[in-house]
Amino acid sequence: MKIAAAQIHPQFAQPDKNRNIIRRYCKRAAQQDVDLIVFPELCISGYNFSSKEQVDSFAEPVPEGPTTQLWIELAKEHNMIIVGGLAEQGRSEGIYNSAAIVGPDQFLGCYQKIHLFANEKDWFLPGSQPPHVWKLPSAAIGVLVCFDWAFPEASRILMLEGCEILCLPSNLVLPYAQRVMVARSIENRIFTVLANRIGTEPSTGCKPITFTGSSQITNPLGEILARGSRTRSGLVIAEIQPQKAQDKFLTGQNHIINDRRVELYQRLCNGDQR
Ligand code: ACM
User: Fold this and answer.
1) Crossing angle for the helix pair 152-160 and 177-188, nearest 10 degrees?
2) Which residue of 118, 139, 222, 230 sits 20 to 30 Å from the alpha carbon of 255, by its own alpha carbon?
3) Is 2 a catalytic residue?
4) Is position 110 annotated as part of the catalytic site?
């Protein structure tokens, strides 16, 4: 199976332009026989919002909105799985920072980011559903979004649900997630695809933000199979055997699920901080 992170440079507040970039990247990925492509977080709107009205104006329902419909069309045309981030207009209330997942035959679902970063808290509602794994014929695919990287519980839950490939659409500004995903791979014995964007986003009334690129694919041994540049866009591709993520023996005598001492971890499951 070939998997890819599409390291792109979305243009702020230019959804049509960004959807065209996505079209081009899906075509290029298909020419290289990619089976799964992951686009960054909020890759349609851009990230550096200055008002709630701005966020609202770029939010779309999923799957009825134009971006998910485009992903459905492209996934079918190129026979691939597509994961990508967008601002989602919720059913009744607010806006979520979400990632849609679409298979070659159909829309599969949506994950609403549960750990909001910095002033994302002013724009989005946090998701209220646990991270989910989509079990497809080619692989079991779990999805988180960007800052979820900082919460090992989120990837651990995905692993316990059978995730083989963890997809992380991102707009990273801190320098940690690439290193953290190596650890997430090792401790969960899973593949990870971190799809980060590049570029600096000035937006009226906001301090500019520079995104850190370096999209990355890791294997269950924590090896970096492919890595993008910090500043240039491009496809980051690796060929993998997803079923290798089913081997949970770290040594012949250490199984990362069975060796857990859950009776000693009770505090992980309640919110007290002591
Ligand atoms: C982030 O969650 N976009 C840093």
Assistant:
1) 30
2) 139
3) no
4) no
